[in-house]
Every structure is written in C-alpha cells, then in structure tokens.
Amino acid sequence: MSDKRTIGMWLYKNGGGEAVGKKIIKKLRERDILTISDINLRYATAKNKNIIHDRIKLNKLDLFFSYNAGEQTIYQTYLYQALNRVIPMINSYDAFALTEDKFQTSFVLRNAGVKTADYRLFHREEASKHLDKTLNKWGGMVYKPTSGWGGAGLAKIEDADSLNALIPTLNHSNIREVFVERFIRYDNSDFRVDIVDGEFVGCYGRRASGTDWRTNITSGGSVFLRECDDEVIEIAKAATKACGADIAGIDIIYDQEREEYVVLEVNGIPAFATPEQEKMGLDFNDKKIDLIVDLIDRKTRNR
Predict the structure, then answer these.
(1) What angle do CA 181, 175, 215 make, to 5 degrees?
(2) 118-182 placed in CATH 1.20.1250.20
C-alpha cells in the first residue's frame, strides 16, 4: 500500500452517486489522499488480524467512508463494527447503528433535550394490553418498525379497527419489540436538513402525496425547495451531535397542536441531490462534498 494517506470508500452509484464519488476522489487526490473505491464488505473476509477485500488489508487503511444505505446486510455491518475497532469510520459504527434504530435514536435525542414525537416501546407479548391505553390517550399513533427506511412498514392507527388489524400481524411476526409514536398533526410536509461535521449543508422540503401522510419519496412524497430558519438548523445540529454522527440528514416537522418543531428521524446516510433535483434548484452537493473532503483530511491527519 502507498505511503500516502489511503482511504476506502463505498458510496452508492444510483441517483447521481457515481458522479459524486468521482468528485470526492478527485478532491482527495488534490490533497495527496488516495481512495480505493467500491469496497463492499459483502465480499470481504477476515483472517487472523486482517479484514481483506480484493487482497487489500482494510485494517491498514487510514479511514473507511461507508455511504450506501440500501445494501447493508448483517454480515456487512458485522465487519463494519469490527473494522471500526481499529480504524476511523465515517460514520462511526456506533453512530451508524444508532441512527438505524428508531427507538434508540428517539431515546438518545430525548435524553439530550431534543424534542421528538412522544413514543412508547413494549415487548411484543405485552403490546396488546398497552396499545389500547396508548391509543385512547393519544387519539392517534404510528407504528414503526425500529429498523428500516423509506417509510416501509409504517402503519397509522386512528381507531380500534386499525389497531385490531395490526395486532395479528405483530403476533405472527418475529419482532421482539413494538414501537409506536404519537401521531403529530402537521401540514404533511417536513424539513430535511443535512449536517456534515457540525456544519449546516442545506435544506429542502418533502411533501406527502394527496393519498398518503408519509413524506418519504419511496412512499409517494415529493421534494420541493424550502428554506429553514436558525431554529430548525440548531435543532438539526443538536440532533446530529447527540447521535455522534459526522454526517446526518435530520427530518423535522412542525407540531401544529403543540406549536413546536419535532425531530422525526435521523438519517445517517442522507442522499446527495439527484441530477433532477439539482435542476430544480437544490445546489448543496458541492458544499457537502467539500465538507466531507475536509472531514476526511482532518481525521486521516490525526491518525
């Protein structure tokens, strides 16, 4: 391996990701930092003290930048955790694992003083007796799998019928825990705020379709240009810091009943703007790339 600083990178390629990756590699090369790209831990093996991918000893790298949301398997995250014990990672394994779990994230945010939706967590075998009381208290709630992304598996529970329809599904699943949040009355739009290395990158909005309450793009939501004020930015920074993340995308909505902003989720691998989104005016990619390159430069110098 070269005497120069060398990092590994696994960055998604769809939606403009390939072009983003090339820009990051070029900017790192200008700082004498070499990049070994396309390191998919799915194809890595461990032998004694080394984790090896295509004959490269990953544990000898100066840093590993993992940025691929949709293809993380249990095996990959297992090696992710091991590798982070010996070299720096962006994000760290702890931050990655935390932001992948909705309950753990909400728990950490609440203890850091960051407002989230009210939530409850029950053991599956105890859930049926608690869910009815919770629904009566809140008047509406959302069931969320603790892991997953893109709005998959979410269920809005508004009455006894919708609750009764959910219970058999829970009873026949292999989940251990049941996580629900108070349904927040809002304008069916959110703020997605990107933070890198503690700095504000950019903001855009997402709006639910006319037939759905979820703002996720994969659930039919749409992106629109949106400015955010200092309060929203500071909330996003506080949430990112609480999760220990170098990079995060914070989803924030405005609770119309309590008249306050609430963090819904922290995404540890927020997407760059797609070429289509750039055409509509989302222009934060270059700033985000520069901040990531600065971050990698600093972390590898410290090492």
Answers:
(1) 40
(2) no
d(CA 81, CA 51): 12
Instruction: Find the helix packing angle between 230-242 and 102-111, rounded to 10°.
Output: 110
* C-alpha separations of 141 from 156, 165, 179, 289, 292 in Å: 6, 14, 10, 38, 37
* Residue 2 contacts residue 36 (beta carbons within 8 Å): no
Reading the block at residue 34, the tokens are 């070499």
Count Cβ atoms within 10 A of the Cβ of residue 269 and give its class: 0-12 exposed, 13-18 middle, 19 or more buried. Answer: buried
DSSP structure string for 121-163? EEEHHHHHHHHHHHHHHHS-EEE--SS-STTTT-EEE-SHHHH
pLDDT digits (tens, 9 = 90+) for 65-117: 999 976 678 999 999 999 999 999 999 999 999 999 999 999 999 999 999 99
Chain centre distance of CA 252 = 13
Please state the pTM of the whole predicted model: 0.92
Domain 5-90, what architecture?
Answer: 3-Layer(aba) Sandwich (3.40)
Q: Which segments within 124-259 are labelled E, that is strand?
A: 141-143, 155-157, 177-182, 189-196, 199-207, 222-225, 247-255
Dist. CA 289–CA 140, nearest whole Å? 41
Q: Which two tokens stand for residue 134?
A: 């919770």
**Annotated domain spans of the chain:** 5-90, 118-182, 186-283
Residue type for position 221:
G
